[in-house]
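Worked Example 4.2. Consider the chain below.
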Amino acid sequence: MATAARSRAPVVEQSLEQLLGRIVDPSRILTRPIDRVAFASDASFYRLIPRAVVLSSGIDEIQSLFRLSHEQRVPITFRAGGTSLSGQAVTDGILVEVARHWRRMSAVDGGRKVRVQPGVIGGKVNEFLRLYRAKIGPDPASINACMMGGILSNNSSGMCCGVANNAYHTLDSLTFVLPSGTVVDTSTADADEVFRAREPVLAEGLLQIRSEILANSTLRERIRRKYLLKNTTGYSLNAFIDFERPIDIFSHLLIGSEGTLAFIAEGVLRTVPDLPVKYTGLLLFPDLYAACDAIVPLRDAGAKALEIMDRASLRSVEGQPGIPESFSSLPETAAALLTEFQCVEEKDRGQLEDQARQGAANLKLLEPAAFTHNPVEQALLWKIRSGLFPSVAAVRRSGSSVIIEDVVFPVEQLAPASLDLTAIFRKTGYDDAIIFGHAKDGNLHFVIGQPFNTQAAVDQYARLMDEVVRLVVERYDGALKGEHGTGRNVAPFVEAEWGPEAYAIMKRVKALADPDNLLNPGVLINPNPAAHVSDLKAMPTVEEEVDKCMECGFCENKCPSRDLTLTPRQRIVVRREIVRLNNGGRREAAAELETDFPYMALDTCAADGLCATACPVSIDTGALTKRFRRLRHTAAEHRRALLAARHFNLLERGARLGLRLGRIGRMFGIGGRWTADLPGPAPAPPKTQAAAAQAVYFPSCVSRVMGGELMQTVVTVAQRAGVPVHIPRAARGACCGVPFSSKGYDAANELAVNRAIERLWEWSDHGRLPVVIDTSPCTYGLRTCRTHLTAENQKRFDQLRILDSVEFANDVLLPKLTITRPARSVALHPVCSLTKLNLAGKLESVARACSGTAVIPRSAGCCGFAGDRGFLFPELTAAATAPEAAEVLAGDFEAHYSSSRTCEIGLTRVTGRPYRSFIYLLEEATRPR
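Applying the procedure from the previous section yields the following C-alpha cells:
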C-alpha cells in the first residue's frame, strides 16, 4: 500500500480560474483586477470585489457553475443589469453575468404573453410588444436600463402597475435552475411531477409549510393583508396561500427572491394592454397632507398614475429647462400630485376628462386643476417627476453616495405617515431629503445624500434606518420595501417587519432550496444585524466630468463597448478604485489597474456622448476619456495637432492622396494597412453659384475626402427642389474640429472651430442663409462648439442657422419634391450625433416618404466607429453592432442608409450590406421618370 501511495502523482491545487476554465470558454472568464473591480459595484451603496466574473452562456454552464460552487465552497451570485439599489448584485465569490448572452425574447399567443431571457432590457420588451398594443405589467422607473432577470427576481412594479400587474401577478411560467442542478420548465404539463420526483425534499417541505400556514389563521390573514399593499420585504409568502402545487408555490417564491433560491433562465409573462391615450395634470396643493388626502378620491375616479412630490422635490427641479417659473413662488409647504388617466381608444378621451373632473372636484388645491392631452406638455410634466432623483444626486457633496429607499404605508394613513417621515429626517439630520413616490399605492420613496467616509456618518445612517423601521413597522404596520427589494439594506429588519414566525418560514425556504447557503448569501436572509452598514462603498472624489456618477448603470445599454471592454459606469468605478488605492498607499495595485486602463477605458471608448442621454445626471463619460487622451499626448503631439489644424488643407490633400495610393496598391495586390473596403478619394466638389443660392452647403472633410458622389447628389436634389445650394471654394481645408476634439487636442479644436465659424459667417452673408452640413457628427460638433469660441465668434454663432442635412431634407426639400421611384424597403442607422440632436425621427420621416417600408432596428445604437476608432480598433465596431447586424441580416431590405460616411463604412463591414447616405435615397426616389 505504501509503495502504491508513493507512486501516485502529486496533487496539484488548481486556481479558481483554472477550475472555471474546465467548464467555460476562457475568453468568458474575467479574473484580471480591472475586470473584477469593474463588476464590484451595482447601483447600491454596497461594494464587494468578486473572485471571478463569468460571462455565462447556456443552462448547461449554469449547472456546471453550481456544481463548482458546491465543490469549492465558493458563493455564487447572478447579475443581469446591475441596477439593483440594495446590493443584490454584488459578491466576493463568483459573479455570473447573465446579460450579454441571454437576450432572446418572443411573443406568445399573439402578444398576450411574452417569453424573455434575463438579459433583455425591460424597455426593449415594451418596444417589441408595441406591435401587439401590449406591454409588460411592471413599469419601474429604471425600465430602460434594468433587465428582465432583475424585474422577475425583485418582483418589480412601478408607477402604474400597482400590485395587480407586478411580476408576481403577471407570471405565466418560468424555467429555473436549482443549486442542485435540477432544471424545471413550469410550462410543461408534467412540471409538478418532475419537480416532486427530482426535488422531493424541497417539494414536500413547501407543502408542509403551506399546511402550517393554512392551519394558522392569524399568520394566514397577516400574509393576505400584507400583500394587499406593495411588499417586497423578504420572500413572497403569499405563494403559500395563492397556490396548491409545489411547482406553482416555488415558481412564485422565485419572484422577488433576489436570486437567492435558484437561477431564472427564462420567464413567460402575461402582458397587459398598452394605454396610449392619456390625460395628464400636475395638481398643486398647499401641503403634503392635502396632497396625500387627495389620493383616494383620484384613485377611485380611475387615475392610473398618482405620483406625489413634496416641496423639496419641486424645489430640486426649479430653474431647469422647461420647468414653469411659477415653481419658484410656491409656498414652502406646497406639494404636488402628477395625475394621469389612461385608456386604449381615442374615442374615449371624453371619458378621461369626466373622470378627471370627478376626481378633482372637491380637492383642496392651490389653483384649479389643469389637465392636458398635449403629448409635449405631458412629457414636460413627467420630466418634472423623473428629474427628482437626478436633481438631488447632482448637488450632493463630492465623496457621498445617493441613497434612494422606498417604504409603503396603508393609503388611508399616508397623509399622517408622510408628515411623520419628514419629522424623522429632521430628527436625524437629513434636512435635504426629498419625498416622492407612487402615492396611489401608498409607496413613498425618499432620497438622501450620504457619505460613508467616517464612523459618525455610518452611525447617522444607522440611526435613520432604526427610526424608519420603527415608524413603518410599529406605528403603521407597513412595508419596509415596496419595490426595490430587500437586498442587504433591509435584510437585518425582515424579522422586525414580519415577526419571528414568518421569518422562520423564510429561513426554512432558503434552507430547502439552497441548503449550503452559497447562492447570493447575505441578501434577504442575513443574521448580521449590522449587514446594512457593512461592505459600504467609499466614493473618493474623482475628475469633475464624472464625480457626480451614482453608479446606477442607466448608461450601460447605450455604450458601444459594453460587450467588449468597459461601460461608462465601469470606467468610473475603475477610476475611483485607482484613486482609492493611491489614497491608501497601495501604489502597486493601482499601477496594475493603470496598465490595463488605456485600452479598456480610453482606446475603446467611442466618446459618442450617448451615455449622457440615459444618465440621470447627464454625465458624458466621453469627456473623461477626452481628458485622459489629452493628458496622454506629449507637448510635441499637441503642437503637431495645432499645426495640422492650422494647415488642414494640406492634411486633406494628403488624405486624398493616401486613398488614391491605397486604391492603386489594392489593384496590384499591395494591401499594407489599407483594407479592402476603404473607399477611394471623392471627386472634386461640383461648381455652384453663390448668387442664386438659398443655402450654403458646407461638405464635411469626410465627404470631401471619401464621400463618393455625395456632394454632387446634395447639389442635384436641392436644385430639383428649387432650393439651390452653394459650396464655397474655400470649403476645402475647413474643419468642424471634431477630429481634434475627440482625441483631446483642445488647442487644435479651438483653432478649427473658430476658423469654421468665421468662414460660415462670411459664406452665409452674416447669417442670412442657413448652412447645411452633410455629416451629422460634424453638425453636432459645430452646434455644440460655442464654449470654445472667442467672444466675437460667439456673437456670430448665435446668429447662424446650422442645419443637419437630415432636417434640411425633411423640412425644406421633401415638401417641394415628388416621389416617383420609391424604394421597396430600407434599413436605417441613426448615428449618435443625430440621436443627440433629436433628429432620428426626421431621418425616419424622409425614409418613409421615399420607400414602402423604413425600419430602424430595435438594437440600433452607436456603431463604435467614432471617426477613426473603427480603423484602429475594428473589434469595437464589431462588438457594438453585432445585435443590429443580426437584425439587419434577418430582414429583407433593398437598401441601407445613414448620415455619416465613417459610420456607413462600419455598418457595411459588419453586415456585408452597402450603407450609404440617405441623400442618395432621396435623390433616387425623386428622380424624374
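The CA atoms of residues 154 and 256 lie 4 Å apart. The longest helix spans residues 455-475. Compare this with Example 4.1 before moving on.
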